[in-house]
Amino acid sequence: MKKLRALLIICLFAVALNAVSYGQTDSQTNKIKYNTWSVSPSFGLTKFYGEISQYDFYPVISGKPNELKFGGGISISKQFSPIFGANVQALLGKVAGIKRNMKEYFNADIYDYTLNATVSLTDLFFVNLKNKKIDVCALAGVGIMQYRSIPKDMTTDKVIDTPEIHPVGYGPAPDYSKNTDLVSSTVFPIGLVAKYKINENISLGIETTMRNINADDLDCYKKQGTAQDRFGYTAINFTYYFGNNERTMQWISTKEKREAEDFSGKAEKQKIDSLAKKLAEINDQIRKTDSLAAVAAKKLKADEADDDGDGVPNIKDLEPNTPKGNLVDARGRSLPEPKVVKVTDTIVKIKTVVDTVISKSEILFSIYFDFNSAEIKPEHHIKIVEAVKKLKTDPNIKLQIVGHADKTGSVEYNKTLSGKRIQAIVDVLIKSYSIDISRIIKTPVGKTDPLSSTDDAINRRVDFFIVKE
After folding, report:
1. Once rounded to an integer, what is the mean pLDDT over residues 164-174?
2. Which residues pair with 89 in a beta bridge?
3. Which pLDDT score is estimated for 341?
4. Residue 251: is it exposed, middle or buried by C-beta count within 10 angstroms (0-12/13-18/19+)?
5. pTM of the full predicted structure?
6. What angle do CA 158, 161, 165 make, to 5 degrees?
7. Are 312 and 363 in contact, with CB atoms under 8 Å apart?
8. Among 134, 102, 141, 130, which residue's Cα sits nearest to residue 120?
9. Are 68 and 61 in contact (CB under 8 A)?
10. What is the pLDDT averaged over residues 290-301?
11. What integer pLDDT is reported at residue 443 of this predicted model?
């Protein structure tokens, strides 16, 4: 019996630990999750019903001895639906009985461990109920009860020990010391539990159960043909519901649960439909982007063409038919022949300022911006990568970025705008490619040096130059 009692206590403790951990995530497989685990401590009165009992419905509470005894318990519960639930309960306490005409009374220690099923009568009979605040449940179960009891004479207060009435679970006369081996029997509880909702995690309640014992010696009086003993337990309880979900299963009706899940299903379908629509829009946008990218690539290829082979793309070449071998400036215009002077029959070439610039710099390309914008277009990032490649290939060169704007607006405004266009490129070079700022020369000129007098789109640009040390 010691092993059995220890096993029952271990099982109850394991269920409690499982409730604490499981209550955080909820076991519901539905889309809507509820708090379903709870713990309920209780405290109340016991009342014995059997041969040694003065009244059938209420205890003797005055004088000594009397039948006023107390018990306490704790239960771990799991709610499977708004109607059905189950719990494991442990109940410890005392019971007593008096029979004045027999001048006898007894006291007993009880240890009660049960597994119970519960049915919500509130939800069962009030099917259209909403905002449930009170829940009345029927309870029935089975378990093991262990006890020891001792009968005494009311007049002398001495222990009665006869073949018909004798101590149960105690050692032999004359001291009747307590024996550690309790008497065990199966017990069948049946009763009602009423709870009032304080909030989704707390409730107060009252419970009353009749514990039917499969034995006839709880009152120490055992006689063939008499009914089995039983005792009642009436108590107040406090319930805490585990979990972080918004609703608790016990406080939602079957109708509310069904409506909530229907609504959730519709909301989920709408969400899926919305995601499908967005996916279709994204796919359409990708197709459009691919098309625009193809057009941009074709335009980029045309822009980079250099028909006269002077090193300046057609789009920037102001002199598209430069003769072979001519030196040109950044806009493709032929440069004048360098001046020479004769010194003691030696011809010395005097370089012009333009010659010096050409010898030290190399134009790479230009990128173009929308009206009043400093945002780099996606198709131009490939050009920035080309500049990065040159900088990382040759540590002895720098990159000069010259910003331009069209004629719309004031000189100061356009110079600021051209500076923003330069800075947008500089940010990409530094943040995305780790180019040292000391290798970048920023030259904002605004609208003061237009490439075209008629096409503003050509003038909204930034030119890239490689500057040699």
Report:
1. 86
2. 75, 114
3. 45
4. buried
5. 0.53
6. 110
7. yes
8. 134
9. yes
10. 63
11. 93
In one-letter notation, the amino acid at residue 92 is L
The topology (CATH level 3) of 2-252 is Porin (2.40.160)
pLDDT of 16 reads: 44
The mean of the pLDDT values for the chain is 81
CA distance 200 to 330: 77
What secondary structure, in 3-state letters, does 180-215 show? CCCEEEEEEEEEEEEEEEEECCEEEEEEEEEEEECC
Contact of 445 with 402, CB cutoff 8 Å = yes
Look at residue 137 and give its three-state secondary structure: strand
pLDDT at residue number 25: 38
What values do phi and psi take at 437, rounded to 5? -60, -25
Residue 398, pLDDT > 60, answer yes
Asked if residue 112 lies in contact with residue 211, where contact means CB atoms within 8 angstroms, the answer is: yes
In angstroms, rounded to a whole number, what is the distance separating the alpha carbons of residues 202 and 249? Answer: 13
Q: What is the DSSP letter of 178?
A: B
CATH number for the domain formed by residue range(s) 336-468: 3.30.1330.60
Using H for helix, E for strand and C for coil, what is the string for 40-72? EEEEEEEEEECCCCCCCCCCCCCCCCCCCEEEE
Give which of 211, 112, 105 is closest to 165, Cα–Cα.
105
The three-point CA angle 116-121-123 to 5° equals 115
Q: What is the dihedral of CA 272, 274, 277, 281, to 10 degrees?
A: -120
How confident is the model over 153-164, as pLDDT tens digits? 999 999 999 888
User: Above 80 in pLDDT, residue 68?
Assistant: yes
User: What residue spans define the domains of the chain?
Assistant: 2-252, 253-303, 336-468
Give, for 431, the enclosing helix (H) or strand (E).
Answer: helix 411-433
| Residue where the block lists tokens 């419970």 | 207
